[in-house]
Design a protein that fits this description.
about 50 residues, single chain, two-stranded antiparallel ribbon, elongated, 1 helix, alpha+beta
Length: about 50
């Protein structure tokens, strides 16, 4: 599995959680990956 696929899976798992902010830092032999997310809540109404 490639590094990017692994990061995408971690991202999807985080989205399934109730969170305000998330920060994941992974350091490999050759690279450093940082995944930083903030959940934005809608304010107002959704009109269709």
């Amino acid at each position: 599995m490639t590094d990017i696929k692994i990061l995408e899976r971690i991202d999807n798992l985080i989205d399934k959680m109730e969170y305000k902010t998330a920060y994941v830092e992974i350091q490999t032999k050759n690279n450093k990956y940082i995944l930083e997310k903030e959940k934005n809540n809608k304010i107002g109404f959704d009109v269709k």
